[in-house]
Amino acid sequence: MDYKKSILIGSLPFSNETEAMKIAFEKLSNSLISIPDGEIGKITEKYPNGARAAWIMTAIDRCSADTDSWSVIKERGNIASTGYPADYSEVELLKPKRTPKEMIKYINFGYDDYFESSYPIFKKLKDEFNNKKINFSLGVPTGLGVTFATMKPITSLRYAETFNEEIAIEVNRAIAIADDDLVIQIEIPGELKMASTLPSFLIGLSTRGIFSLIKKLDKSANIGIHICLGDLNNIALINPKNLKKLVKFSNHLVQKWPSGYKLKYIHFPLAEASIPPTTDKNYYKPLKDVVLPEGVEFVAGFVHEGNSNEDNMSILKTIENIRQEKIAVAHSCGLGRRTREKALLALDALKYVVEN
To answer: Which of 60, 252, 295, 297 has the fewest other C-beta atoms within 10 Å?
Structure first.
């Protein structure tokens, strides 16, 4: 069978990382470019879906627990059933007690620990399913991706670079172990949110932190870009009226991409969390103007359990006709904020698309 290429974005609402990866291999092994570990973490009374199910909140929790380095100047507001804030306005506000230069000694996001725990499981499954091409995907935010959600604007900008430094330290430890078997997926909802508010000629302001993080990574790294609309409790942070700004944002990333760094794919989010993508062909026309270097995968994040298989296939055909090429496919974001049942439906929808 001639399978289409696919990726899974990040979180999955299953019992643990082993179960998440096994389900993903069983359903999609023959099509997957890369696979995450499911980003679940410890399931507790506080976080019934797992402590890693929303990465911004996971990072914030690690900071706020260090009361010697951080003070909470606004408490977390209304809480959803997931244990996370009900929406973005309910996220706690933190104030650093140390300078950016000092703070690097006191922050740790655990990305290398997550990797070291899950990578051996991935390698075992990779052998079991005899898929030599699939890579392990380690999803990370930029520093700004964390700071913008939990600090006042000026403070956020001051500390974003420090957070980038720590993220890069942890990621480079993983790269040293897995090398070409690893994809570093950089997730950028904060930057897209900033870009969506800026006039086009200032869009470069929104990408500085992305490039700063990339330049701190080992040049052997495979890098994927997950352009992200944000997803907290299956609600999008960004609600684009059209795709024109998204296309300009992507093209700017490619135009200014740092020399010597390997870009494996760019993922375009085309559904807003729980809201299925439109079947209106005109909506997707701007995707014709996306410019990608040779060998970089265009990954369309449109597959959604809220659409029928026929609708999903219609959107695929529309985008491929517009792009005049075969594309890779995905969901719009991780599935960790869905119920287990809906996530399985979403995986089945993706399986249908890649097999037909």
So the answer is: 295
At 321, list the tokens.
Answer: 């006709």
Answer whether 0.85 is exceeded by the pTM.
yes
Tokens of 18: 């082993």
Helix (H/G/I), strand (E/B), else coil: 228: coil
Q: In the structure encoding, which two tokens stand for residue 21, read together?
A: 């990866």
> What are the tens digits of pLDDT across the range 149-177?
899 999 999 999 999 999 999 999 999 99
Helix (H, G, I), strand (E, B) or coil at 280: coil
Residues in the chain: 356
Query: In 3D, which of 38, 36, 2, 8 has the Cα closest to residue 329?
Result: 8
- What backbone torsions phi and psi does residue 312 show, to the nearest 5 degrees? -60, -40
Per-residue CA distances from 269 to 42, 169, 215, 273, 291 (Å): 28, 28, 25, 9, 16
**Strands 182-187 vs 135-141: parallel, antiparallel or unpaired:** parallel
- List the Cα angle 67/73/76 in 5-degree steps: 90
